[in-house]
Amino acid sequence: MTTTATRAPAPTTASPLRREDADGVALLVLDRPGARNALSDAMLAALADTLAAIAQDRSVRAVMLAAEGPAFCAGHDLKEMTAHRADPDRGRAYFADLLGRCATVMQAIVALPQPAIAAVNGIATAAGCQLVASCDLAIAADDARFGTPGVSIGLFCSTPMVALSRAVAAKHAMEMLLTGDLIGAEEALRFGLVNRLVPAGQERAEALALARRIAEKSAVAIRYGKAAFYKQRELPLAEAYHYAAEVMTENMLARDAEEGIGAFVAKRPPVWER
User: Fold this and answer.
1) How far is CA 4 from CA 7, 55, 64, 119, 259, in A?
2) What pTM was computed for the model?
3) d(CA 109, CA 130)
4) Structure letter (DSSP) for residue 119
5) Domain 219-266 falls in which CATH fold?
6) For the domain bounded by 5-215, which CATH number is listed?
7) Could you read off the pLDDT of 93-106 as tens digits, one per residue?
8) For residue 255, which phi and psi values (nearest 5 degrees)?
9) Structure-model confidence comparison of residues 65 and 6, the more confident one
């Protein structure tokens, strides 16, 4: 694959999110290291806009999320949230809107046509753990830590629970949510929250290598498969098989399936639709 690198145009003001594209992979870097990459209003807005653009970008075949500084993401910006307690409604409208915007971003990751891979360093807590759980795949540093510590400050991590409970077994999720304890990378791997561990400092390179391997596959097949994966697992068994058969039939009629099968029979490399 020919290497081409582009960088998104520099914004007029410092952005909390940086995007770099190369080899069909969009690298999104959370860039608020001084705030442990907390999901501020500006960060959520940048993520929402960038994910919407990527979803329409046929040149992007995989997405990778990483972070600058010693932490992946510490969750919501509690200082921003606390400031709204002075609102006439004690922040009710702001909190509801904030959590809705965060949920929209998490769902946008799941709905992306392209696979999303988290490269986790340091800590990923509360909505930061939710961000990892929302990604399709995750590579973590062997010293990374994960948690939903809201209960320790009187705020149950109810919205992070949605993604977490879909990524790990129920009893593991409940233990994390009820205790608020941080778990280490080995436990996160055992729980199924991450795919693999690497020595600290190598998580971004490992995630990028995985993203590039995926980017070499048929983007058409990946789009069919990712969407079908999330839909079928919410269906009863018989309905899931019926739905999956419909998807596979449509996929079989796509040009890339014809090309891929023909290339396999002819013992030549396939040329995928771009």
Assistant:
1) 10, 20, 17, 22, 25
2) 0.92
3) 11
4) E
5) Lyase 2-enoyl-coa Hydratase; Chain  A, domain 2 (1.10.12)
6) 3.90.226.10
7) 999 999 999 999 99
8) -60, -40
9) 65
